[in-house]
């Protein structure tokens, strides 16, 4: 019937609508506000024909008396189920990582969803560009610098190897905004939008003084204990300022995630220590062992606004800038982000996360299973520099879900992500 209505539509030169015609009947219904006729005409079989005819044959519709009221209603009624289905499909399909901006970069940059997964599985790390726009990066850097200016020169911010773990810094506006921006990347990796996030540290370092350049110190370590088998998390670091291989950068033993269980089987003492404390720093002998397995040491370059991801089994550290680097005045501004499926978390895990959120405490990088809430060690004379309340971004629905404060509906038919990882007995 819709097809006949569209075919019967007069041209833009038609003076009016013939009384009793199909078009006239529908126009009259539209003028009278009678939606029942429109609903009856919008059968599943007719929707496709209507959509085609409306776009191709009915360009003269505005000339029909009453068409201004009729055609929008008819179009909305006929396409509503289609639009609802499309919205559902968009929610089901996690958003893909953004396309790279124009220009090139020395780092290993990956953008396709499958490419990111493949490189993470093969090499243990990859770089995703464009997670945060350059304009937003500059805005967040300005916020961090304004915060740094509140510290007196004789009592600067406390950090170690550029890492700032106190002052509730993981709850500042910039940190939460970056987490929300990074969520689509993690959603594409884990096949779900239902994620929990870490409330981790940030890294801030001014251009190095004479004593702060790279002196060859190595603190390669593993953040995944021996009892966590296989993939448990991808750690992330969003760079608000570019980092080349000459700057303050992440350093990894490429492909070392493939040797995780073999390493702990080879070094029983390392296994014991890692189980007691998630963090394990390697000895020179153990670093040499990884290199014998074909794991090359790489410095990872990351563009401004990009994010480097690495498997938690990967052996890594960070390395200060080298002397005579190309960008002598460059700062380091990094926000650490990690997300895993919320479905993995137990009620005990969620209780810890809620406490960390409510008390403005930081956590280690594991978001869903057996995370650690870190004690606040802000010096008493610097308490005024701490974050005192939740920012606007932290109070959003998305942020509260990421923090475990607002629960997800795991029965809504939307994907809940990959299966929970495996744990071994001690």
Automatic annotation (TrEMBL):
<feature type="compositionally biased region" description="Basic and acidic residues">
    <location>
        <begin position="103"/>
        <end position="113"/>
    </location>
</feature>
<feature type="region of interest" description="Disordered">
    <location>
        <begin position="83"/>
        <end position="113"/>
    </location>
</feature>
<feature type="compositionally biased region" description="Basic residues">
    <location>
        <begin position="83"/>
        <end position="99"/>
    </location>
</feature>
<protein>
    <recommendedName>
        <fullName>Phytanoyl-dioxygenase</fullName>
    </recommendedName>
</protein>
<dbReference type="Pfam" id="PF05721">
    <property type="entry name" value="PhyH"/>
</dbReference>
<feature type="region of interest" description="Disordered">
    <location>
        <begin position="371"/>
        <end position="390"/>
    </location>
</feature>
<dbReference type="InterPro" id="IPR008775">
    <property type="entry name" value="Phytyl_CoA_dOase-like"/>
</dbReference>
